[in-house]
Amino acid sequence: MRKIKVCLDAGHIGPTYNQSPVVKSYYESAMAWALHLKLKAALEKRGFEVNTTRAAIDAPMEVYARGAAAKGCDVFLSLHSNACGTESVDYPVVYRAYDNKEGADALALKLAQKIGQLMGTRQAGRTATRKNSAGGEYYGVLRGARAVGVPVYLLLEHSFHTNAAAAKWLSIDANLAKLAEAEADLLAAHFGAAPQPVTRTLIMGRAQATAQQMALYCRSKNAAPQLSGCTLEMLAQTFLEEGEAEGVRGDVAFAQSLHETGYFKFGGIVQPQQNNFAGIGALNGGPEGQAATFPSMFIGVRAQIQHLKAYASTEPLAKPCVDPRFSLVARGCAPYVEWLGAADNPEGKGWAVPGGGYGESVLKMLRGVLAQSVPQEAQPAPAVPDWQRAGLETLAAAGVINSPDYWSDRLSQNITAGELFGILGNLVTGTLA
Fold first, then answer.
1. Element (H, E) at 186
2. Which residues are bridge partners to 52 per DSSP?
3. Is the entire prediction scored with pTM above 0.70?
4. Which uninterrupted H or E stretch holds 256?
């Protein structure tokens, strides 16, 4: 069965657009951004293919272009909260095609009513349409989606942020998670989407690669890594050891370093002598060297492992903290490699911001490491028991074998049937072997 394609749009640009007049900490744009990331994850879990109109909350994009970005999709959803001049107004409303294209009103009503039930709004959820003076869709995002042929397009107003109860409810992250799950369930039921198994890569755990594999893969891409005061093999082994101490996959951390440094070519903000293998403290556009510096390779690796643990776990550190940015991380917000980019994380947080595809880039490096075939060292020949060597000497002394040096080199090897018959024949005929 073909996957249903959904395009999600977080209403408005920037983190502080449309402040609630009654709950000053609430901004419509921040809520919509957080909700659309959670909804994306919930829909993907149910088998939908999902893209978003923007990679970052502050990425500029005109409303019509946001709707048109849904070209080729089956569904376009733009997420908002509403506003009016009366605080008592409190109901969700879902705007759908003015001509009820694809019978969208049924789905729109289910969504609006479910949102109202979850939020406990004063008035029940409802649907609506709105035309412009030319008779087309009033809202630019819906006009753009219609123009590129999207069958179902909806604008979801999650009640009114001019109502204090609604604004407070929408300010709670756990409530947004409930909304995302409920909305995803309704869309899955409407389109008959089947849940798909989702496999993600945990950052915490035992490494699967060896230091040899890690070094081999790096050298296959860069024969002369720019390292300060250590060999590539030492660095790889240190990643495994420091990772083991904190319960972090050292091979994941090493793969991240390959991505961050360009296989230890450096050449950007961070320089080799800083022993900073993951760009800790480096900001896009910053001058050369403006990033964290560590006194040794060992401390630099430890800091990176600790920074990964901050994202992946809420467990305390096993060693004293050397990561200067450890306390700035929302602990446990990215347990998976795939979530290290904020744009790919349902929480909207991550090592890289906006970071779309960052985790997959790290995984690509990791797959390359794990694919390395390590040359096997030559194994010593098994020891020959004394009784076998004594037997050879006895046969040589009896004249049954006259080439003991030849047979001595073959005591640990198999012999052919012909060789065996030849030796036995010597016992009968007296011919020397």
1. helix 173-191
2. 8
3. no
4. helix 250-261
- Do residues 121 and 92 touch, judged by C-beta distance below 8 A? yes
Backbone angles phi, psi at 229, to 5 degrees: 80, 20
Segment holding 390, helix H or strand E? helix 386-397
Q: Which two tokens stand for residue 248?
A: 């972090």
Q: How many residues does the chain have?
A: 433
Using alpha carbons, select from 264, 274, 254 the residue that is nearest to residue 223.
Answer: 264
For the record, the structure tokens of 11 come out as 């209403």
Q: Please give the CATH architecture assigned to the domain spanning 5-191.
A: 3-Layer(aba) Sandwich (3.40)
**Which residue ranges in the chain fall short of pLDDT 50?**
432-433
Domain ranges of the chain: 5-191, 211-370, 386-429
> Residue 373: CB partners within 8 Å, gap ≥ 6?
none
- Contact (Cβ atoms closer than 8 angstroms) between residue 223 and residue 268: no
Question: Tokens 């109502």 — which residue?
Answer: 163
Q: What CA–CA distance (Å, rounded) separates 250 from 149?
A: 47
Cis, peptide link before residue 354, omega less than 30° from 0: yes
Domain 211-370 has CATH 1.10.530.10: yes
Which residues have CB under 8 Å from 119's CB, separation 6+? 92, 158, 159, 166, 169, 170, 175
